[in-house]
Amino acid sequence: MQRFAVGYEKVCRVIWVVFNINVAFIAHTLMGLIVIGLFPSIAAIYSTVRTWLIDEDQSWTWRQVWKVFHEAWGEEITSANGFGWIQFIAGAFLAWDYYLANNNDLGGHVGIAVSGILLVVNVVYWLFALMSWAIRAHFDEKIMWIVRMSVSMCIARPLCSLLIILELLLTVWVWVKWPGIFMTFGIVVPLFLVIATIYSFARIPGFSILAELMESKEVHPSYEADR
Fold it and tell me: How confident is the model at residue 224 (pLDDT cuts 50, 70, 90)?
C-alpha cells in the first residue's frame, strides 16, 4: 500500500509539472511572437525537465517551474533560434523529398526503394534532432560537438532510440484517440518522455539515473551481479 501511495504521488507530480511546463511553453512562445519564441521555449522545456529529473526534491510548485523555465528561455533567445531554425529547414527539406517520392511515379521497385530510404532518413533525422536538444541542455559545448554526440547516441544506444520512436508513435495515437490530452499538455508530453528515456537509458555522464543509483548504493541486485 505504501509503495502504491508513493507511485501515485510520483505520477501526480509528473502530471502537475508537465501541465505547468505546457502553460509556460505557450506563454513564452507567444511572448516571442511565435517565430522568435518557439525554439527558445523548446530549449526551456528540455532544460526544465532535465533540472526537475535530477533534483532530489521533485515536489516543485508552479513558481519553481516558471522560474526555471523563464530563466532558461531568456538565456536561449539567440542560440536556440539559430539551432532550431537550421534543424527545421533541414527537416522540412527531407519531408518535402519524402512527399515528392510518394506523389510522383518513380517507377515500380525503384520508387518503393526511394520512398523507403527517405522514410528511414526522416525518422533517423528527427530522432537525432530530439536527442540533440537534450544533449544541448546538458552540455555547454559548441554545435558541432553536440551534433557528433547526438549522432553517437542514436547509434550507440539502440534501445534508447527504439523506445523514443515507440513513445512518439504511442503519443500520436493517444492524441488522435483523446484530443483533450494534446490540448491540456501539448508537445510537453512527448518531449518529457524523450528526456526521461534519455535519462534512463542513454547513460550520459552527469545525466543518468543508473549512475545515480550506483552512487547511492541503491542498485538492483542484477546490476550488482553485472559489475
Answer: very low
In percent, how much of the chain has pLDDT > 70?
A: 92
Query: Which runs of consecutive H residues, i.e. helices, occur in the chain?
Result: 2-31, 38-54, 62-102, 108-138, 143-156, 158-177, 179-185, 188-201, 209-215, 221-226
Number of residues that make up the chain: 227
- In whole angstroms, what is the distance from residue 100 CA to residue 94 CA? 10
214-226 burial: b if 16+ Cβ within 10 Å, else e: eeeeebeeeeeee
Q: Tell me which residue of 103, 104, 31, 110 sits closest to 74, measured CA to CA.
A: 31
Task: Say how far apart CA 224 and CA 227 lie, in whole Å.
Answer: 5
Predicted TM-score of the model (pTM): 0.90
Cell of 2: 505504501
CA 21, CA 15: separation in Å to the nearest integer? 10
Beta-carbon count within 10 A of 145 CB: 13
Angstrom CA distances, 127 to 23, 155, 186, 202, stand at 25, 11, 19, 13
Domain range annotation of the chain: 2-226
